[in-house]
What we know:
With 265 residues, the protein is of the alpha/beta class. The protein is built from 11 helices and 15 strands. Helix content is 32%, strand content 23%. The chain is globular.
Amino acid sequence: MATASSTDGGDLLERLRAAGVARLGIAGEIPFGYISTDGEMTGEAPELAKIIFKRLGVDRVQPVPSEFGSLIPGLKSQQFDIVAAGMYINPERCQEVIFSDPDYQMLDSFIVRKGNPLGLHDYKDVVEKRAKFATGTGYAEIGYAVEAGYKRGDILIVPDQVAGLNAVEAGRVDVFAGTALTTRLVVEKSTKAEATEPFKPIVDGKPHVDGGGFAFRPTETKLRDAFNVELHKMKRSGELFRVLEPFGFTKAEMTDLTAKELCGG
Length: 265
């Protein structure tokens, strides 16, 4: 297998075209990337990747399920070719991988018990009211809670938003933090829990909006750049929103943010 050179942007796209398949790292998180009840890979990121890879000359995509926290290590160790999990683009992750421009932007929200008895609306409330706090493996929300003054060692880390909902419903925690979209969707059928209004977390003293995209190995700039070209065409035509809308995304979650901005550059 040829090794990618950092000077020429890598040859992964050519290899994927020859193989006819791209392997996507997904993390079982609805609505970003997951295996449906009938065993099919779906979610906003895999559906978008199917379209873009087809247009890049790669016939099909294949899911490689992983835990969210293992996606970047798995990408770097070549277990898959691209992370298609709606991963937030942030400076820490930008030290390890390169990202497409974001296909969506997102605020945070909490899962709390019905009626929000503790009145938890942001991370400051969680700290001040000494609430028992949970979030998901590798989630950006860990850092937001710590920045607000919550002790990292006191955070309950659970696998995903379903486990977070279960923890809130069972009373093991008072609050689970996730994206506004995942919390909104996971509480739909709950009789014991609800999602709070979306809010902007505070990062470096300022309100922050997140954006999620696709991650690539740092040597694979050619593939990332080709992917971005197709993504921007879909943004301009409105096709991107049509692909994301069935997964619960609204016009408010469409974005013109760039990976460079979100990486802090």
